[in-house]
């Protein structure tokens, strides 16, 4: 019977942002603009760090990983949503939905891990500068980056496997602009979601661990920064750390709310808003916050533009 349930659903229907054609076009144009901004910013950072030897340090190695991660993360959901809005088609295949759930969780989990690693890197740079070169050696940085990607992959595999082990035999409309676990649970014709809830608990534990690590890192960072005698030195350190902390907090809070809030039977605009905040906003803002405001990145960009002009 369960196998029959699996075969009856060959695809799903994603929810659009509006039923009005003009608003659908507006949504598509807005998402396209945001996607192009994210694409340009993250590709620029990835290219600059790859080409400029002066940026081959641990901090920029993690920034390069973050840029590639953000590029992948936003590419999983936004292009499909744009195409659906322009074509007036809301369909996604069963396999496409499985892949979307796996990749969204993979990149979200990897991003949380990488942001945690980056906070540790900042802690060592600010609080233990004399030991920085011995702690943050190339091998350690590569291991931490691989661990970030691996943890995201494991969580993504767990979530997608447990979610799609459930039978889908009823409504195909997912109340979201991409396939996500809470929306799929609402349309499953099984009441037994224990495996998924166990995975959500594991994921929540993983997020709590990352949050505690970030809080500890920033607690030490802020106590060290406050001891800097000059106002200019303190403001420079805070301007580097605070935006990172704000994006991390927004990403964690919106993602956690989306997965832990009680499911609603009716369509909720809050679901769409929360999902935009954790899938679209961080990849778009990260290039501006982490890199394009950075003095070394600006210098590298000027050199790159000059090199392209004189070529």
Automatic annotation (TrEMBL):
Listed Gene3D superfamilies: Rhodopsin 7-helix transmembrane proteins (1.20.1070.10)
Q: Name one GO cellular component term.
A: plasma membrane
> What InterPro entries does the record tag this protein with?
GPCR_Rhodpsn (IPR000276), GPCR_Rhodpsn_7TM (IPR017452), Olfact_rcpt (IPR000725), Olfactory_GPCR (IPR050516)
Task: Name where it mostly resides.
Answer: membrane
State the protein's name: G-protein coupled receptors family 1 profile domain-containing protein
Which gene is annotated as encoding this protein in its UniProt record?
LOC100923964
* Protein's membrane topology: Multi-pass membrane protein
In its UniProt record, a GO molecular function of this protein is: olfactory receptor activity
Q: Into which family does the record put it?
A: Belongs to the G-protein coupled receptor 1 family.
Q: Residue ranges of the G-protein coupled receptors family 1 profile domain?
A: 41-290
Q: Which organism is it from?
A: Sarcophilus harrisii
- Superkingdom of the source? Eukaryota
Can you say where in the cell this protein is located?
Cell membrane
Keyword annotations of the record:
Cell membrane, G-protein coupled receptor, Membrane, Olfaction, Receptor, Sensory transduction, Transducer, Transmembrane, Transmembrane helix
Membrane-spanning intervals of the chain:
25-49, 98-120, 141-161, 194-216, 237-260, 272-292
Q: Which PROSITE patterns match?
A: G_PROTEIN_RECEP_F1_2
- What is the protein's known function? Odorant receptor.
């Amino acid at each position: 019977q369960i196998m029959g349930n699996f075969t009856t659903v060959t695809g799903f229907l994603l929810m659009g942002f509006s039923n009005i054609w003009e608003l659908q076009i507006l949504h598509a144009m807005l998402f396209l603009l945001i996607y192009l901004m994210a694409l340009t910013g993250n590709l620029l950072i990835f290219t600059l760090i790859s080409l400029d030897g002066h940026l081959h340090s641990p901090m920029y190695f993690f920034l390069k990983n973050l840029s590639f991660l953000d590029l992948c993360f936003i590419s999983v959901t936004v292009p499909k949503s744009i195409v659906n809005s322009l074509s007036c088609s809301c369909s996604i295949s069963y396999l496409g939905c499985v892949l979307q759930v796996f990749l969204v969780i993979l990149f979200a989990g990897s991003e949380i891990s990488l942001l945690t690693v980056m906070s540790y890197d900042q802690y060592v740079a600010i609080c233990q500068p004399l030991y920085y070169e011995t702690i943050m050696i190339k091998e350690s940085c590569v291991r931490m980056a691989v661990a970030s990607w691996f943890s995201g992959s494991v969580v993504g595999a767990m979530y997608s496997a447990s979610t799609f082990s459930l039978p889908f035999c009823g409504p195909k409309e997912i109340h979201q602009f991409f396939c996500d676990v809470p929306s799929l649970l609402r349309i499953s014709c099984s009441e037994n979601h224990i495996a998924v809830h166990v995975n959500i608990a594991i994921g929540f534990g993983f997020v709590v661990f990352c949050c505690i690590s970030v809080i500890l890192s920033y607690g030490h960072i802020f106590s060290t920064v406050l001891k800097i005698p000059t106002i200019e030195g303190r403001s420079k350190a805070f301007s580097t750390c605070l935006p990172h902390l704000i994006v991390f907090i927004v990403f964690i809070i919106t993602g956690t709310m989306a997965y832990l809030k009680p499911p609603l039977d009716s369509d909720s605009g809050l679901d769409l808003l929360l999902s935009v905040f954790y899938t679209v906003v961080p990849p778009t803002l990260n290039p501006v916050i982490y890199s394009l405001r950075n003095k070394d990145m600006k210098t590298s960009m000027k050199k790159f533009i000059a090199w392209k002009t004189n070529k």
